[in-house]
């Protein structure tokens, strides 16, 4: 053999292999029924009209999942989908186990519910080509489904025929024996239970009740016991079940009047019209009509595991009548069941005329008769209509009715002759055909028009409500009616009635309103019905679909006819949902005759109405979440709720919460559970408390409250806030007011309370009403209110817009209003309708202008915002009268400063126990009674104590001490005024100190208060006060009993030493009022006002702009606002803001300078129960220009929403980046806080994983529009954690200009790391189920890399788990292995990818002393014991002496901090103790307090870097005192107040907590502890006094790292003694004081360990700087269950596809071994059979041992070998087939020795999928389920280089050699013959490797393709290039072996290096040596491998060394021989 290039080459045959892929082809019809062994989609309905109703009463689409297997099936975590590209679309919740033969109904409603009744997040398509599939828990394997299903029809289901159906049985028939009781007292609920003793109850046959004829059973008449006595009856019916597990369905069928609650063995299973917890004398919550009561209503009962008992059971029914005086009652149950099917089989798919949800489908399939077609559509008509009916089915009978009933087979038969209609009728028709189900009911209404109606025309829509000859009444009281909606002709704009209507439907209506029900013009509540008189969604006038609507008639008060429409429109423009409206004219015909028009009441015309939406829970209305009664805990129980403040509906009890009586809107009162009511009550109580404490933003959406209040105040709504008021709360959301409702009494209507546009007084105390009075006491809320008002005034509340809305409505109503006012007596004012409209417009303009002037105005600037040169002068101006000034900032921050008032001391001058005198004046007695001119003779007045009034009920009785009812002088009917005089005394010394005075009032309805004759406060008082004056408006009873504060500081000087008089002029709303109340308290005291600080600058003259400025300016008015008691807002003294941007050397963002650079639209699966994956989305923008740009005008408007003007990043330097994120906290969890300065804020909405249009706009132009996608020209790898990154700035809208991010997580805010900056480093191999876990890292680069600072993690959601130590060098092309002792130094015996946070799992309650103490124990530092140990400094403030050390304490000396001196304050400061790095810290001390009356004491944790050793007032005294606030950067203060009660507060950085009460015993030494625990950047703080917790784990936004301790005390004017002793500080996780700081190169990073789970894991490597700052390169992989001793590793197959399969052998520190194959492997697959064939998989045992098949899984088709499956001997083959094994064997005749198993429920995909064999293996963790590691993985495809003929042509995929990797196309061939060779493993003929490089023609030419030919003329033969990993057709790819001499220990050795193709089959390499180039000997044995480096491209670089030193053998030659 002649050597070539010193390389010998002997050629053996080489094999080329191919790979095959299958598709999850969903097969639906089969030729005959077949038994299957997995849950299937047995039936579905894609157009449900009335077959089944969900819990909302809606006819949603539905799906039935059936389990035909003889054993139960757990389908928890499986999926349903209607999209073949999104297999995991909707997940079944945990706990779904189907018994054998059992079914599950899931509604395909798009409601997305997984609690209680199940609803998917999609609907089903009724169009042909639909898709529906059931997916196994892996999210990929199709268990069963329907592809391209045919068109679906109304109420016709589709599914599989079922044989072997179960039996329908009746367990409890009608007329069953029962025991009954009409209770006369409460006997509890034990009578529901199975074992309750009912032997004393009378026997009776069902039904039970009276007045229902023969439906009442023997002895079942209970009229004498219930009539006018009780509305409840108890019924117990025993029944027997021999085998509960055999039942697959249970149905309770009920005939009832009026309600019931049913229980089986104590479990409530069904109810209608029953309270949530029925009492012994409860009544039904609603009527059930007699006509419905006699028809069975069915209730499907889920058969839970403990519902039924074997043997005796009990059905207990609580029957309920609507009232005790009802004329009838009925309780008649029947209980039916279905038994499990015997030998269930499934046949072909088809239609079912009669759907059978939850029961057997049977085999009766076929479509129903067709729909009936009407020749004339529904319409108005005159004379007659000739109607013909037709149906497509020629043999069908058409039956029809004219009375509104559903046509039956016995209804009138249509004979083919036209039907002549001469009067108003509804025609309902249905087709009947032999063998088919009845067709759908078609209906049309024909409305006879009189001549007046025929000639009627309008320019707005018309609604006709036609009752024909009457009809049924629904259970909700709505009467039957037919609605016809007529719309204007598009061409003429005119509506006429003699034409077809645009929408017609049957429905119900009833008169609505409480006070309005008696009006001349009625309002109506209406709903649309389907053929079963259930709700049906309609879309009139293009409004969103719903069933419930309102026809609103409010002209009694609103003569403009538009007040509601106007304010709703304005609310919607404001951004707050309100009802959509449309003006219509209404006809209501109830007499059955022709429809008539006329202006008299005898005609059918009803005038102009506002057609509008009803307040209800709906995505398009009030969008709160559904709250089923099954939800009883957080977070579900937190919403959604809709509540109302209004009169309660009849029979409702409402909810008492937050001091209010509230009504339920959603859930309805009868539906809400006690747990939900309790939760909401507690939440609203907490919310109410927060409104005063300042933390209200935790509970409410302040802006929503502001908008709601402003809309009411603008309109001067007489009912505002106290009636017709709604609020709602979304799940985990905040309480929002709205939508607004019912504004007919507003804007100067005829009500009179809303007349004055220049007043804050309307029908409600807007600013002092409950809840609102608390908020308007808060300066921040007030400022938000003012700012929002002026913001709206510049936008949708401009005079122009308001006037335009009114003008548009007036034009729309101009014609119709004439007819309306002709019809009704209520007429327009002001000279006619035009005057009414003009007045409304003028009133609103006047009011808006007046409101403008009630607040401090905003300043003005000489320049509008824009771009200006440096040096531009800016001037500000405004109305600066009365001492006003302008304050401003140029950085966009608010210049406002707020004062901080501390009440230091208070004294109650007048309390509720004070003596008082009262008089009801009967004439004018002057004003002397008001005080100030004493003495005044009140001896004839009624005497008593404070609290005057009367109440015909009893609400005010607890507050009334002087009753103005007989025998006292009576007020009611005599006078609306009453006088009250309350004398009190004040010492002169107190008056000298007082600068604080507050009057607190309980009042109904108004008052004026005088102090010694001086008027100090008023509420609801008239402008002119007389002896018989009335209140200007009512004060709600619920508010009247609450003390309202009225500030009176300005009247402190009215007090005088000695006796004073508080005089109250009480005012009632009317002389006939049923109640009246006046009770007062007067409180005076001393307050300290801290004027605060402003971050702003007072404007004193022009401003020169030198850089970009964002002006924020306000006018400050030192006078503030007015007293709220007058009804006038207080305000804050600050005007509305002026915000302008001046760009200096900066330009606005536009399309030339700003681009979207990166989009993370489909994040990696990082979510958990609290974080959705979408929370981790982000968008990155970049300034690509060389100029600084402004983002202020930029905003995202499509895809997501974000306005940069409100963001935290407003300017962007050249090259600068900015981020907007979906959820900031989620983003920080993954990316840390290092990018916070780049984040502008959170965007609204979320990005679509399939792509969408993303629009970024400037002020007037589009900046960028990107319609990104997950397919097409867009990078397909940019999903599941990789972002889209823009690489071509010239065409950002083109998908080709984008690439996928280099690695997972993207690089937000940073440039994509290059391979130069961060080279590729791979997680190469992982073992999790061996002697110890290990992770191997591989460096494919030619240089060494220091991985120090990089991170390893097993959870990418917690990326920084293990920090790789510094100086961890990985050599070039080398490896670095981390063992478990590195990343999990103290391994948990149960490795868990998410370990329990509890570090001490030891349950031993009395453990031994710690044998292994914490290597970093707590450090206790004695700060001072005042016996000479420790050190401190002290300092006095105020005017007190400094504290001192005092001897004589229990443990020696102590420190006296306060010493019985008034107005004293002392600080005690301790030096810093090197706390940096603390984990926990506890300050402890002993204190003793005597004479407790001062402000208190406190401790401070003062930040050393900020404040050094300066004494700062960070200790605590009185609440909000500057000593408590710790208003210093990064410092924490804890204050213990002792004045007016003992309360503690926490403060960090100026932010203060609420009060916490504690107990402080006097004269005792007691311990005090304050501890903090760090959590990231934040901390939790706890405190205890005397061993009792004061607060526990209060969350701080931050905490100082290196701090020192200060303690302070303050008396505040009252003397107190306060002593302290034994002050200690305990810290953990800190360096000990005597340890030197680490050297700079020491690695002091704390390592966070993690363990790897053998049950499936992920491992990721994240690049970072040496300090651990991440640099955005990520590499790693996920893997499944791990077999013992096998690792997972990186593998590149022959086509370059990378995967991470289990490996044949562990190969750490070397190139990875080949993927594992065996002991079982797939040797042949039929994945896409041709006609007549079926799928199969052939499996062979290729090991030398027996392999049990039991439990083996085939993932991808959902097949598991059963427990009786045999063992496979070595070499043995089995088949798994999709159909019946016996049928397969008889059809395809496999060898008799080959076992055939099946069928399997899934399908192999025609396009390719992953199929793996998994063998059960014992779990190393005790009591854990077996592992299921994969032993063979085949991920095939139907595209080249995989063999393509198996894709539908009939051939199979055949594995070339069993040991080859199943996921490599080179491992597979197509079978030679169609059908393959199932059961026969053939020896496959070898394939020429040359086919990889040469065409068929070239293969025939040996000079080109021969093994020893050289096709690319590079001097190396074709075969050698193939073996050594280069390309024989590419000369540039040559990479020849090389030889080198290396020195080692002073000796030289020969090393050979060569490249080798991975995965070679049929080749062997041998190193040979020669000394003469003639004789060559095998030298393999003398060479050892030095390195084996994976190049990442399917080849490896191998280096071997001769073990023999070269020495004198200088004539030695080597070659590599290829055989």
Helical run tally:
21
Number of strands: 126
Rounded to an integer in angstroms, the radius of gyration calculated over CA atoms is: 43 Å
Taking the sheet with the most strands, its summary is:
8 strands, antiparallel
Could you tell me the strand content as a percent range? 25-35%
Describe what you observe in this structure:
The chain is mainly β and 2019 residues long. It contains 21 helices and 126 strands. Helix 4 runs antiparallel to helix 6 and helix 9 packs antiparallel against helix 11. It is globular and about 145 Å long. The N terminus is likely disordered.
In terms of topology, how is this protein built?
Layout: E1 40-45, E2 61-66, E3 73-74, E4 79-81, E5 90-91, E6 97-98, E7 103-108, E8 130-135, E9 142-149, E10 157-163, E11 168-172, E12 177-181, E13 203-205, E14 208-210, H1 223-226, E15 232-241, E16 247-257, E17 259-264, E18 267-272, H2 290-293, E19 297-300, E20 311-320, E21 329-339, E22 345-352, E23 373-374, E24 379-381, E25 385-387, E26 389-390, E27 397-401, E28 412-413, E29 419-421, E30 425-432, E31 442-448, H3 451-454, E32 457-458, E33 462-466, E34 479-486, E35 495-496, E36 503-512, E37 523-528, E38 548-552, H4 563-574, E39 581-589, E40 605-613, E41 641-645, E42 655-657, E43 660-666, H5 674-693, H6 702-715, E44 725-729, E45 735-737, H7 772-775, H8 779-793, H9 799-813, H10 816-823, H11 833-852, E46 860-861, E47 866-868, E48 872-874, E49 876-877, E50 885-889, E51 900-910, E52 915-919, E53 942-945, E54 948-951, E55 962-963, E56 977-986, H12 988-993, E57 996-1004, E58 1006-1011, E59 1014-1019, H13 1037-1040, E60 1044-1047, E61 1058-1067, E62 1075-1090, E63 1097-1098, E64 1103-1105, E65 1109-1116, E66 1138-1144, E67 1147-1148, ...
Parallel strand pairs: 24-31, 33-39, 47-66, 54-55, 67-70, 74-75, 114-115
Antiparallel strand pairs: 1-2, 1-10, 2-7, 3-6, 4-5, 4-8, 8-9, 10-22, 11-21, 12-13, 12-15, 14-21, 15-20, 16-19, 16-21, 17-18, 17-20, 23-26, 25-29, 27-28, 27-30, 30-31, 32-35, 33-34, 34-36, 36-37, 37-38, 38-40, 39-40, 41-43, 41-44, 42-43, 44-45, 46-49, 48-64, 50-63, 50-65, 51-62, 52-53, 52-56, ...
Helix pairs in contact: 4-6, 6-8, 9-11
């Amino acid at each position: 053999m002649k050597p070539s290039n010193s390389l010998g080459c002997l050629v053996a045959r080489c094999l080329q292999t191919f790979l095959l892929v299958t598709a999850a082809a969903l097969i639906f019809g089969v030729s005959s029924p077949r038994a299957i062994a997995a849950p299937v989609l047995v039936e579905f309905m894609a157009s449900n009209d009335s077959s089944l109703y969900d819990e909302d009463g809606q006819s949603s689409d539905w799906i039935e999942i059936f389990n035909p297997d003889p054993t139960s099936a757990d389908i928890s975590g499986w999926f349903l989908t209607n999209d073949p590209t999104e297999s995991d679309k909707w997940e079944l919740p945990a706990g779904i186990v189907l018994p054998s033969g059992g079914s599950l109904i899931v509604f395909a409603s798009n409601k997305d519910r997984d609690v209680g009744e199940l609803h998917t997040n999609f609907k089903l398509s009724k169009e042909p080509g639909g898709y529906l599939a059931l997916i196994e828990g892996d999210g990929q394997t199709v268990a069963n489904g329907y592809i391209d299903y045919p068109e679906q029809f109304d109420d016709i289901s589709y599914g599989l025929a079922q044989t072997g159906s179960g039996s329908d049985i009746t367990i409890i028939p009608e007329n069953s024996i029962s025991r009954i009781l009409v209770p006369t007292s409460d006997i509890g609920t034990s009578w529901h239970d199975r074992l309750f003793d009912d032997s004393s109850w009378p026997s009776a046959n069902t039904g039970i009740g009276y007045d229902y004829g023969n439906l009442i059973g023997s002895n079942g008449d209970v009229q004498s016991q219930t009539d006018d006595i009780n509305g409840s009856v108890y019924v117990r019916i025993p029944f027997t079940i021999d085998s509960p597990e055999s039942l697959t369905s249970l149905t309770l069928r009920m005939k009832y009047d009026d309600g019931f609650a049913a229980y089986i063995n104590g479990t409530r299973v069904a109810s209608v019209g029953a309270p949530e917890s029925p009492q012994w004398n409860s009544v039904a919550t609603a009527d059930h009509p007699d006509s419905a009561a006699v028809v069975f209503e069915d209730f499907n009962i889920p058969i839970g595991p403990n519902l039924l008992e074997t043997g005796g059971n009990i059905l207990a029914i609580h029957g309920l009548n609507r009232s005790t005086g009802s004329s009838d009652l009925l309780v008649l149950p029947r209980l039916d069941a279905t038994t499990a099917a015997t030998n269930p089989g499934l046949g072909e798919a088809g239609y079912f005329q009669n759907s059978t949800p939850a029961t057997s489908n049977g085999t009766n399939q076929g479509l129903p008769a067709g729909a009936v077609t009407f020749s004339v559509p529904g319409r108005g008509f005159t004379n007659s209509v000739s109607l013909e009916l037709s149906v497509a089915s020629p043999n069908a009978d058409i039956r029809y009715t004219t009375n509104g009933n559903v046509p039956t087979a016995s209804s009138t038969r249509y004979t083919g002759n036209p039907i002549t209609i001469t009067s108003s009728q509804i025609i309902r028709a249905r087709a009947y055909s032999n063998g088919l189900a009845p067709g759908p009911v078609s209906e049309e209404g024909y409305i006879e028009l009189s001549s007046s109606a025929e000639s009627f025309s309008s320019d707005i829509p018309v609604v006709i409500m036609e009752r024909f000859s009457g009809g049924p009444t629904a259970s909700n009281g709505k009467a039957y009616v037919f609605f016809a909606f007529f719309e204007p002709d598009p061409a003429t704009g005119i509506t006429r009635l003699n034409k077809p209507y645009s929408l017609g439907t049957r429905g119900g209506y009833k008169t609505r309103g409480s006070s309005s029900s008696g009006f001349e013009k009625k309002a109506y509540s209406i709903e649309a019905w389907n053929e079963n008189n259930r709700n049906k969604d309609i879309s009139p006038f293009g409004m969103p679909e719903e069933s419930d609507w309102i026809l609103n008639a409010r002209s009694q008060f609103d003569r403009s006819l538009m007040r509601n429409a106007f304010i709703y429109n304005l609310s919607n423009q404001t951004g707050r949902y309100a009802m959509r409206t449309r003006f219509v004219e209404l006809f209501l015909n109830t007499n059955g005759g022709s429809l008539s028009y006329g202006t008299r009441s005898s005609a059918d015309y009803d005038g102009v109405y506002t057609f509008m939406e009803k307040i209800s829970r709906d995505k398009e209305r009030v969008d709160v979440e559904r709250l089923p009664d099954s939800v009883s805990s957080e977070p579900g129980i937190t919403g959604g709720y809709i509540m109302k403040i209004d009169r309660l509906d009849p029979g409702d009890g409402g909810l008492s919460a937050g001091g209010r009586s509230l009504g339920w809107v959603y859930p309805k009162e009868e539906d809400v559970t006690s747990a939900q009511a309790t939760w909401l009550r507690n939440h609203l109580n907490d919310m109410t408390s927060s409104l005063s404490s300042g933390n209200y933003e935790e509970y409410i959406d302040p802006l929503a409250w502001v908008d709601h209040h402003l809309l009411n105040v603008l309109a001067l709504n007489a009912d505002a806030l106290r009636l017709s008021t709604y609020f709602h709360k979304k799940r985990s959301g905040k309480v929002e007011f709205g939508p607004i409702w019912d504004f007919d009494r507003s804007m100067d209507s005829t009500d009179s309370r809303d007349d004055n546009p220049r007043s804050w007084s309307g029908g409600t105390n807007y600013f002092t009403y409950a809840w609102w009075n608390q908020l308007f006491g808060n300066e921040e809320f007030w400022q938000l209110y003012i700012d929002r008002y002026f913001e709206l005034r510049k936008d949708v509340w401009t005079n122009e817009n308001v006037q335009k809305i009114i003008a548009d409505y007036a034009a729309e109503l101009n014609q119709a209003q004439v007819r309306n006012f002709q019809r009704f007596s209520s007429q327009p004012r002001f000279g006619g309708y035009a005057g009414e409209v003009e007045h409304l417009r003028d009133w609103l303009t006047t009011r808006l202008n007046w409101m403008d002037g009630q607040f401090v105005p905003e300043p003005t600037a000489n320049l509008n915002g824009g771009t200006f040169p440096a040096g531009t002068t800016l001037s500000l101006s405004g109305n600066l009268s009365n001492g006003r000034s302008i304050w401003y900032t140029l950085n966009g921050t608010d210049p406002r400063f707020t004062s901080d008032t501390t009440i230091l001391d208070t004294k109650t001058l007048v309390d509720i126990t004070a003596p008082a005198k009262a008089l009801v004046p009967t004439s004018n007695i002057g004003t002397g009674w008001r005080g100030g001119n004493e003495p005044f003779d009140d001896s004839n007045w009624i005497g008593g104590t404070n609290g005057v009034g009367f109440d015909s009920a009893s609400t005010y009785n607890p507050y009334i001490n002087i009753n103005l009812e007989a025998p006292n002088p009576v007020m009611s009917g005599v006078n609306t005024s009453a006088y009250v005089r309350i004398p009190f005394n004040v010492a002169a010394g107190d008056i000298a100190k007082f600068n604080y005075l507050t009057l607190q009032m309980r009042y109904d309805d108004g008052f004026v208060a005088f102090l010694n004759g001086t008027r100090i406060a008023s509420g609801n008082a008239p402008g002119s006060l007389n002896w018989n004056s009335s209140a200007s408006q009512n004060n709600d009873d619920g508010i009247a009993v609450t003390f309202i504060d009225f500030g009176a500081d300005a009247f402190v000087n009215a007090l005088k030493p000695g006796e004073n008089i508080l005089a109250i002029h009480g005012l009632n709303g009317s002389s006939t009022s049923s109640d009246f109340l006046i009770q007062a308290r007067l409180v005076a005291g001393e307050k300290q006002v801290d004027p605060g600080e402003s971050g702003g600058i007072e404007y004193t003259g022009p401003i020169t702009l030198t850089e970009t400025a964002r002006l924020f300016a306000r006018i400050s008015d030192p006078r503030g606002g007015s007293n709220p008691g007058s009804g006038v807002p207080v305000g804050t003294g600050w005007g509305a803001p002026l915000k302008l941007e001046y760009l200096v050397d900066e330009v606005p963002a536009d399309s030339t300078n700003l681009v979207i650079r990166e989009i993370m639209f489909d994040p990696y699966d990082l979510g958990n129960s609290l974080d959705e994956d979408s929370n981790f989305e982000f968008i990155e923008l970049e300034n690509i220009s060389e100029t600084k740009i402004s983002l202020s005008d930029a905003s995202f408007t499509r895809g997501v929403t974000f306005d940069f003007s409100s963001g935290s990043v407003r300017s962007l330097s050249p090259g600068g980046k900015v981020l907007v994120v979906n959820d900031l906290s989620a983003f920080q969890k993954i990316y840390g806080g290092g990018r916070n300065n780049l984040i502008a804020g959170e965007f609204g909405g979320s990005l679509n994983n399939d792509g969408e249009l993303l629009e970024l706009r400037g002020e007037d132009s589009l900046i960028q529009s990107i319609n990104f996608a997950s397919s097409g020209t867009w990078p397909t790898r940019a999903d599941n954690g990789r972002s889209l990154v823009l690489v071509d700035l010239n065409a950002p809208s083109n998908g080709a200009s984008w690439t996928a991010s280099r690695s997972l997580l993207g690089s937000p805010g940073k440039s994509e790391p290059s391979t130069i900056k961060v080279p590729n480093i791979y997680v190469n191999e992982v073992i999790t189920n061996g002697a110890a876990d290990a992770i191997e890292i591989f460096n494919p680069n030619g240089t060494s890399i220091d991985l120090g600072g990089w991170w390893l993690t097993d959870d990418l959601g917690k990326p920084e788990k293990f920090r790789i130590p510094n100086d961890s060098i990985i050599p070039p092309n080398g490896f670095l292995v981390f063992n478990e002792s590195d990343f999990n130094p103290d391994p948990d015996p149960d490795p868990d990818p998410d370990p329990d946070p509890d570090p001490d799992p030891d349950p031993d309650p009395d453990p031994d002393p710690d044998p292994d103490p914490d290597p970093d124990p707590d450090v206790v530092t004695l700060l001072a014991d005042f016996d000479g140990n420790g050190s401190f400094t002290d300092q006095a403030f105020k005017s007190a002496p400094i504290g001192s050390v005092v001897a004589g304490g229990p443990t020696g000396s102590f420190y006296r901090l306060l010493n019985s001196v008034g107005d004293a304050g002392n600080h005690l400061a301790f030096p810093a103790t090197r706390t940096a790095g603390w984990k926990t810290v506890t300050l402890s001390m002993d204190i003793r307090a005597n004479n407790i009356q001062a402000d208190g004491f406190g401790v401070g944790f003062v930040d050393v870097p900020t404040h050094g050793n300066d004494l700062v007032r960070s200790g605590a005294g009185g609440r909000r005192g500057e000593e408590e606030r710790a208003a210093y950067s990064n410092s924490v203060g804890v204050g213990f107040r002792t004045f007016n009660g003992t309360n503690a507060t926490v403060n960090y950085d100026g932010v203060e907590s609420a009060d916490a009460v504690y107990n402080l015993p006097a004269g005792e030494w007691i311990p005090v502890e304050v501890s903090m625990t760090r959590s990231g950047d934040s901390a939790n703080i706890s405190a205890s006094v005397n061993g009792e917790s004061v607060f526990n784990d209060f969350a701080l936004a931050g905490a100082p790292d290196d701090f020192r301790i200060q303690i302070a005390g303050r008396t505040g004017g009252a003397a107190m003694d306060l002593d302290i002793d034994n002050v200690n500080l305990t810290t953990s996780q800190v360096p000990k004081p005597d340890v030197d700081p680490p050297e700079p190169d020491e690695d002091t990073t704390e390592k966070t360990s993690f363990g790897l789970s053998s049950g499936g894991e992920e491992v990721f490597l994240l690049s970072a700087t040496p300090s651990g700052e991440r640099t955005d390169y990520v590499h790693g992989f996920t893997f499944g269950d791990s077999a013992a001793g096998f690792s997972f590793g990186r593998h590149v197959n022959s086509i370059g596809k990378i995967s991470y399969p289990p490996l044949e052998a562990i190969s750490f520190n070397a190139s990875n071994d080949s993927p594992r194959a065996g002991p079982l492997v797939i040797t042949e697959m039929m994945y896409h059979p041709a006609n007549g064939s079926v799928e199969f998989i052939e499996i062979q045992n290729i090991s030398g041992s027996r392999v049990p098949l039991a439990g083996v899984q085939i993932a991808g088709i959902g097949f598991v070998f059963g427990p009786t499956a045999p063992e496979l001997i070595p070499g043995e083959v089995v088949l798994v087939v999709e159909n019946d094994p016996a049928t397969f064997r008889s059809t395809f005749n496999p060898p008799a020795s080959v076992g055939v198993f099946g069928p399997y429920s899934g399908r192999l995909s025609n396009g390719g999928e992953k199929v793996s064999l998994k063998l059960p293996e014992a779990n190393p963790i005790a009591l854990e389920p077996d592992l299921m590691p994969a032993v063979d993985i085949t991920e095939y495809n139907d595209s080249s280089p995989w063999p393509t003929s198996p894709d539908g042509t009939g051939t199979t995929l055949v594995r070339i050699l069993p040991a080859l990797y199943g996921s490599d196309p080179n491992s597979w061939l197509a079978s030679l013959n169609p059908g393959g060779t199932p059961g026969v493993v053939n020896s496959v003929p070898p394939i020429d490797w040359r086919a990889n490089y040469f065409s068929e023609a070239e293969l025939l030419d040996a000079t080109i393709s021969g093994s020893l030919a050289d096709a690319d003329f590079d001097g190396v033969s074709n075969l050698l290039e193939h073996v050594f990993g280069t390309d024989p057709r590419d000369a540039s790819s040559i990479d020849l072996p090389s030889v080198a001499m290396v020195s080692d220990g002073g000796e030289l050795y020969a090393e050979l290096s060569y490249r080798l193709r991975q995965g070679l089959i049929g080749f062997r390499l041998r190193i040979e040596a020669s000394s003469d180039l003639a004789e060559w000997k095998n030298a393999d044995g003398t060479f050892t491998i030095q390195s084996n480096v994976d190049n990442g491209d399917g080849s490896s670089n191998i280096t071997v060394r001769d073990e023999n030193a070269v020495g004198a053998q200088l004539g030695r030659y080597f070659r590599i021989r290829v055989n």
